[in-house]
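Exercise 7.
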Amino acid sequence: MPPIDSRPEVKLFTDGACRGNPGPGGWAYLLRHVATGQEREGSGGAPLTTNNQMELLAVIEGLRALSRPVTVEVVTDSQYVAKGCAEWLAGWKRNGWKRKEKGQLKPIKNEELWRDLDGLLQKHRVQLTWIRGHAGHPENERCDELAVTAAETFR
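Solution. The predicted structure, written as tokens, is:
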């Protein structure tokens, strides 16, 4: 019997880093095709940014690197990204990209990045997994190394 979803399975490991917050920052991802084990890495950065922006860009750039719709597990150490996608995003969209604060609607931070991420999430079947950062997870450590290296180029 053929699988219900014939999309390829991919794991996307991500991390962001910032030297100062705000300050020079870097993002990185590692993509792994589950069936073949093939991997691809990417990284970049900005001279003046925040850690949350770099965490978001790591996921955005990793998803952008996918050439077709896939089933993807996004592994992140960012609670901001994990909770944003799983808990907050639907409400922000419902409220015109605003968040509730003390009974009032306020603009969300990093709206443009969240909008980009939302569009990419719609293209794929995505599962988010949060892991503790700097806890010896090999792929997270590799992404951290790449992100820190990218951030250092802007110092």
